[in-house]
Structures are given as C-alpha cells and as structure tokens.
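Hi there,

I know you've been waiting on this one. I reran it after we fixed the sequence typo, so this is the corrected version. Both the input and the resulting structure follow.
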Amino acid sequence: MSMKNIRLSIKSAIEQSLNYADPRLLHSRGIMGMNQRNVAYVARYNDRRCYPNVDNKLKTKELALEDGIAVPALIDTVIYQHDVNFVFETLDKHPSFCIKPANGSGGKGILVIVDTDQDGYRKASGEHVSKDYVIRHLSNTLAGLFSLGGVTDFAIIEELIEFDPIFEGLSHEGVPDIRIIVFKGYPVMAMARLATHASDGKANLHQGAVGVGIDIKTGFACAAVQHNQPITHHPDTQRSLENLSIGGWPDLLKLASSCYEMSGLGYLGVDLVLDKNRGPLVLELNARPGLSIQIANKRGLLPRLQQIESLQHRRPRTVEERINYVLNEFND
C-alpha cells in the first residue's frame, strides 16, 4: 500500500470514529446520554424522598410484600458486628444462599453461595471459601465497603434463586436476571443479563456479564453484547443467544409496571428473576438505571420516553392499560 493510501485509510478511520461519537448522530438515533438521563428523567421524575424505597433493598422487599409483589424469600439480616458469628446458626440450615449489602449498588458486595460442606462454602464460580471468608465479607458489608457513599450498612441474606430452565446453558456460574426500564409506569425497554465466568457468576454488565436485548413487545432476543461488543454466543458455554425467548412475557411486564406505584419513582430500572418454582420475582429496583440497555437493544431510549411523555390522560391508567399500550402502540 502506498503512503498516500495509508494516509487516506487513517483519515477514513478517524472520520468514522468521530462520526460514531458525533452527538448529532447519536441524537438522531435516539440515544440518551448520562447527563440527559440525570437531568431530564432521574431528577425530573424521581422524588428524592422516594430514593430510600429502592436504595435500601430490605425496604424494597417490605414495600413489595405489602403490595403483593413477589420477591425472593428473606433468610436473615445482619445488622451489628456482634451478630456476625451467630449468623451461622441460621446459615447451617440453608445449603445455598445469597448475601447482599442492603444499600449496595452495581452488584458490589453480592456473595452467592451455591453449596455447603463441612469445610465451608462453594461460590457460583466454583471457588471454595471458608467460614472466615464469609465473616470477613459480612464485616466489610457492615463497615460500608460496598454501600452507596461508603456509609455503614447491614447485610440481607436471601434464598438462592433456582433459575428457569429457559436459561439453561445461557448463564454461567450464576443466576440470570431481566432488567426492564419503567417510565411513568410504562415498560419501555428490556434486556436479559447473563452471568459469565468473567463476571464471577454475577449478572452485572460492568463486570463482564452478557447483555441480551429483549423485544419489549414479544420477549424475544434481538441482539447481544459483552463489554459493549456484539456477540452471538455465550462466551463460556458457546450456546447461541439468538433463540432466547422468555415465556409469559406479559406477566413480567405487569410485574415491572406495578413497581411504579410501589416505589413512587417515575423513572426506574426493575430487575426481575425467573425462579423455576415461584415464577417471576422482583430482585431489586434502581433509581438510576444504567444506559447499556441501549447498546444491548441497538436502539435509543429517547423515542419511547418521549412517546410516553406526550400522552395525556384524564385519569391514571391501570397497569393493564399501560401494558396494552406498550404492546399495541410502540413502533419498532
């Protein structure tokens, strides 16, 4: 290749890179950025007085139970340091469980135990850990190592989810979940988050989990990414991600939509799990859901958010009416 052609190739690559990041191009595709999310949606539609309803996982669970919304069963809570050593009296009755910081975020501090033996515990990744490891983890949780703002925290211990067989081979060493963005009670975008070895069995995209865009009207997979790069197969199991279809999809939309009234928040992320015995459960809520869901779906959030903003009703719509609107009126 001549020097002139090399210079032209470099120029073309730079121009393509700049075009990809061009704010006007992103805007034309309906892509919402972090600043716009924070100002136009989170700050505008989320009353800060309602933040504790979602930032504190125990309070979320209590509110959900009051509203008849299904959640994973609570095994125990650890509030004070002197309670840590006594927690094993309860854990010894449960071969599997999940420890979470009540005020954690981004998947930090979640410890998933899938089996117990006389020497300790086995994590979802297969790593074997001792009781001392669990004690240190609980102590770090209480000290606020994983909490929002580093404030002192407490730990909640839940029964481990047995995920639905539809995810067999599609999530590695951990439980998959489904994130649905709900705006003013309308579910507007969804994705499945599938655990990988890189994510240590956690369904967290920032830690290496796979995000699979889910068509909001059908529950069918439409695209998949890992580390923001498109993929077609799970990196650990090599199972195709293109045929993922979530049965009973309207029920999941209804469950997510119901969290609007329960939380008091106008813009939120609802994380659901599909338990093979109990069906769909609300895992947790997020007042500041991330924007990677747009990459997983290969489409921007803005057109659908603006479509909902344009609606005018003389009376509040029911959950069923909101779901019917999404199924009938969203144009793909």
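Quick highlight: The longest helix spans residues 3-21.

Best,
R. S.
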